Amino acid sequence: MQDEARHVAFGRLALRDYYPELTEAERREREDFIIEGSYHLRDRFNSPEMWERLGMDWKDVGPALDQAEGHARFKKRLFSRIVPTVRDIGLWSERVQKAYTDLGGIQYAKTDAQEMLDNDAKVAEDFDRKMREGFAVTSK
To answer: Burial code of 49-60, b = ≥16 C-beta within 10 A, e = fewer?
Structure first.
């Protein structure tokens, strides 16, 4: 867990310094990638192909799934780490903001990315410590 927290923090720092130097075309290409990837990530969890394979019409299932409390909560949390990081690294054009509004994750734009990463690192450290303690107890 700590390794993953460090990878995200490192990537954020490296990209935050790199993106201001991009040309407009390079920036647009990266924004296109972020937008497309975010929609793909959301749609991956909707799995319309699976529902259709089960003989259900996605036009009926999709709206019902969107109204399911657990699915809606999960979909919103899906972007809780992505949105503040994308904003922080400087890929925060009107197009990107519109996409995250459409995806239901724009509320995370107000999250302080550094504070979030610091908290993630603390949670990872606590988790790893508990895992080591649990392993030490069970291996005796």
So the answer is: eebeeeeeeeee
The Cα–Cα gap between 49 and 57 comes to 10
Q: 9: which 2 tokens?
A: 């923090």
pLDDT tens string 92-116: 999 999 999 999 899 999 999 889 8
As a whole number, mean pLDDT of residues 133-138 equals: 71
| Angle in degrees, CA 10, 90, 5, rounded to 5 | 25
In sequence order, the 6+-apart residues with CB closer than 8 A to the CB of 6 are 121
Q: CA-to-CA distance for 94 and 87, rounded, in angstroms?
A: 11
Are 105 and 79 spatial neighbours (Cβ–Cβ below 8 Å)? Answer: yes
Residue whose C-alpha is closest to residue 96's, from 19, 31, 7, 23:
31
